[in-house]
Amino acid sequence: MTDLERTIGYVFRNASLLEQALTTPACHMDRPEVSDNQRLEFLGDAVFGLLSADAVYAAFPADAEGLLTVRRTHLVSGAALADAAERLRLRDHLKFNQGAQPPPPHAKVLADALEALMGAVWLDGGLAAVRTVFASLGLPLNASFNEWDANPKGYLQVKTQAMHPPRRPVYEVTQTGGVAHAPVVTVRVRVHGLGEAVATAGSKTAAEVAAAAALLEKINGSDPA
């Protein structure tokens, strides 16, 4: 039993699936023939979708569909999965190309690897196995939020369209960097008459979301409800 298997409470029957789940696409730089974790990531994303929907449906029987969707989004967001990966010390088990630097905290590659791990568990042990691992992750089922927290870009869009005259947020990539397995993107969002905000994340989409949230915080304080 590996340390990771002990942590997640599941021992693989097919060790090659665990090996593949921990193999990042960056490994192709040294070993083009290796099977990376992207296919398992695709499968694991669907597994997380099923388990998170089941979890919030059972935990919040009075919630309507819209709020359940927001809760599910929070539960298995990229940030939540990266946090869980950090708690599992998943970065210590991942395989990169030779000479690669460890990914920064909460890098997208960690959330991707956790999805791949869940896909591997599904193939190896089925529904019962992924339920066991899901329960071990400590995901934020009871997180406090309002309905717009899951979609700050959407909220900013609605807010600016309600202005007189209507306006729209303008997003601009101001800087890119990092390495192949851990990109870093900085985005600025501007709204005429409301100001601007800048945020950095592991992808253009994530940076836009973070920038929108930062601008909302500037405009409305800590609670943009």
| CATH fold annotation of the largest domain | Ribonuclease iii, N-terminal Endonuclease Domain, Chain A
What does the largest sheet look like? 3 strands, antiparallel
* Helical coverage, percent range: 40-55%
Q: Ranges with pLDDT <50 over ≥5 residues?
A: none
Question: What does this 3D model show about the protein?
Answer:
- With 225 residues, the chain is of the alpha+beta class.
- It has two domains: 3-136, Ribonuclease iii, N-terminal Endonuclease Domain, Chain A (Orthogonal Bundle), CATH 1.10.1520; 152-220, Double Stranded RNA Binding Domain, CATH 3.30.160.
- Helices cover 50% and strands 12% of the residues.
- It has eight helices and three strands; from the N terminus they run αααααααβββα.
- The chain has helices at residues 3-8, 15-21, 38-59, 65-75, 78-87, 108-136, 152-161, 204-220, and strands spanning 170-179, 182-191, 195-201.
- The protein has a three-stranded antiparallel sheet with strand order 1-2-3, with helices on one face.
- Helix 2 packs across helix 6 (108-136), helix 3 packs across helix 6 and helix 5 (78-87) crosses helix 6.
- The longest helix is centred in the middle third of the chain and has 29 residues, at 108-136.
- The relative contact order is 0.14.
- The mean pLDDT is 87.
Describe, in short, the structure shown.
The chain is of the alpha+beta class and 225 residues long.
